[in-house]
Design brief:
By secondary structure, this protein is α+β, with helices and mostly antiparallel strands. Helices cover 45% and strands 24% of the residues. This is Adenylate/guanylate cyclase domain-containing protein.
């Protein structure tokens, strides 16, 4: 502790020595009892001050320090003559004379870190040198007991505040931005020379992402700002880096003390990711406690983040998910909104016959549909589309959502390109021996799809208890009816699609050929469907 500026040389009589020991013991007992009862600072000072006033023979006692919310306050007891004690304690340390009496003040600190100010007010003018010396020594004894307790309170409060700040940052809808803020906030309070977050991709669990920080600042990140040594380790070890100790990663951070905290998921056996921190000098217990708390919070945040990515991956390709989650208000893109969209319905030709005559058990049907639909959805995503849903063996795609940044011509182009690709890969499957044999059994000339494409207004967004991304409109119904009219390996497009494609300058589109305009009445649709057949 830093002594008061006017602290006298220590010349103790036996009587004073006994008094100071008793004063220290009483102060210590009062503070221990308060800590044991888990009292607030207000309750603590209310317990201690009356007894200390009696032992010190003083008129008033006060402490200025930060409360549990880290807000500076002054607590006082006794007669201060109507004067605010905090104002008096803000003056120079040592002895000072006021209208209310003689004030002795001393800084409360631990290892040079100030935690507050203690002041004791005595009635009347200052006494002789000996009296002042005894009072200052008594003040020093009380201060020695108080400053350690206050440091504990402040440390716990600072830790709590820091944890709240990090939690608030991690609540950011943009996970990466929240992570950057949390690490920066942590590094401002504790020494954090190196920090690595390594975590699984929610949709592709075999893929690892990372973010590394130097003194709280982002240094490397997978994708846009890669670090060569870490990329090499990922290539060599893959997800094995998440298991066991940090031995492999220690070699990456050669010469540093490394501590790893595994982020585990309660609902799965595989780890979500790992935190690794490193420093030449190691970490204090205070720092490690904060890092562990951050790891626990981050574990839950990753679970939530992954859950959202997995949900979105049912409808959108990875690029669209990344773009969505980079927007703090990404939910606005998913709210119901009416837009003109490209609509695609693709259904396997003769699927009922294939199921009934081509397969000997439902499991094989499921495998067949899984493979075909996965490839069909990939073609929709490849052209910027959204996978709406699957009805039986019919795959439905939307073009325009979720950002609606393209015009109607681009949306029509994308829908027709996806239709052509689905037709092409489905026909190519007929070249596989097992598929060819299947087609022979059910007496089909090969594997094909019937496709209907429309361009119409629809209400698009997340709907229903499962929050699925879909669209509703008469245009969706028209596309479904159009698809049912299509024959073997045939693509039919509505008149709206044909008209939009006329405005396209794309060489691919300019080469497309269509049959004549056809009008087909269909059940439960007021007007006949006006459509064109896309020539092979």
């Amino acid at each position: 502790m830093t002594p008061a500026p006017s602290s006298p040389p220590v010349e103790l009589s036996l009587e004073e020595y006994r008094f100071l020991r008793q004063l220290g013991r009483v102060t210590d007992d009062l503070l221990e009892e308060s800590l044991r009862e888990r009292e607030t600072l207000t309750q603590c000072f209310r317990r201690c001050f009356p007894t200390l006033l009696q032992h010190l023979g003083a008129r008033g006692i006060a402490v200025t320090t930060r409360d549990e919310e880290l807000v500076e306050q002054t607590w006082s007891e006794g007669d201060w003559g109507g004067v605010f004690a905090g104002g008096l304690l803000a003056g120079p340390m040592g002895q000072s004379v006021h209208d209310t009496g003689t004030l002795l003040t001393q800084t409360l600190d631990v290892a040079g870190s100030p935690v507050g100010t203690l002041g004791v007010l005595y009635a009347g003018p200052p006494g002789d040198v000996g009296t002042t010396a005894k009072r200052l020594r008594a003040l020093d004894v009380v201060a020695e007991e108080l400053d350690t307790v206050l440091m504990l309170v402040h440390t716990a409060s600072e830790k709590h505040q820091l944890i709240l700040q990090c939690n608030e940052h991690l609540a950011n809808p943009v996970f990466e931005a929240g992570m950057d803020h949390a690490v920066r906030t942590l590094a401002q309070r504790v020494r954090l020379p190196g920090f690595l977050l390594l975590y699984r991709d929610a949709v592709q669990p075999h893929v690892l992402h990372y973010r590394t920080y130097r003194h709280g600042q982002l240094e490397y990140e997978s994708g846009e700002q890669p670090g060569a040594p870490l990329e090499s380790l990922l290539h060599q070890h893959g997800t094995r880096l998440l298991h066991g100790d940090a031995g492999v990663l220690k070699r990456l951070f050669d010469g540093r003390t490394t501590e790893a905290v595994l982020i585990s998921a309660a609902t799965r056996s595989e780890p979500l990711g790992k935190i690794v921190v490193w420093s030449n000098e190691g970490f204090s217990a205070y720092a490690m406690d904060l890092i562990r708390v951050l790891a626990s919070t981050l574990s839950q945040r990753l679970l939530d983040y992954n859950r959202e990515r997995i949900h979105l991956s049912q409808f959108f390709p990875t690029g669209a998910i990344d773009a969505l989650l980079e927007d703090p208000d990404y939910a606005r893109h998913l709210r119901a909104q009416e837009q003109e969209v490209g609509i695609l319905f693709a259904d396997i030709n003769g699927f009922t016959r294939i199921c009934e005559q081509g397969f000997d058990n439902p499991r094989n049907i499921g495998r067949f549909v899984d493979e075909w639909s996965a490839r069909a959805v990939d073609r929709i995503w490849a052209h910027g589309g959204v996978f709406d849903k699957m009805v039986g063996d019919c795959v439905i795609g939307l073009f325009g959502p979720p950002f609606f940044q393209t015009d109607r011509v681009r949306r029509a182009e994308a829908a027709v390109r996806a239709a052509q690709d689905i037709q092409a890969f489905t026909a190519e499957l007929s070249g596989r021996e097992e598929v060819a044999a299947l087609c022979r059994r059910v007496k089909l000339p090969g594997l094909g799809v019937a496709v209907g494409v429309n361009l119409a207004s629809a209400n698009c967004g997340l709907f229903g208890p499962n929050r699925n991304y879909t669209a509703f409109s008469s245009g969706m119904n028209q596309a479904a009816r159009l698809q049912s009219l299509a024959g073997f390996r045939e693509t039919l497009v509505m008149e709206s699609v044909h008209e939009a494609l006329k405005q396209s300058q794309e060489p691919f589109v300019r080469k497309l050929q269509f049959g004549p305009l056809t009008e087909t009445p269909v059940k439960n649709v007021a007007q006949p469907l006006k459509h064109y057949r896309l020539m092979p």
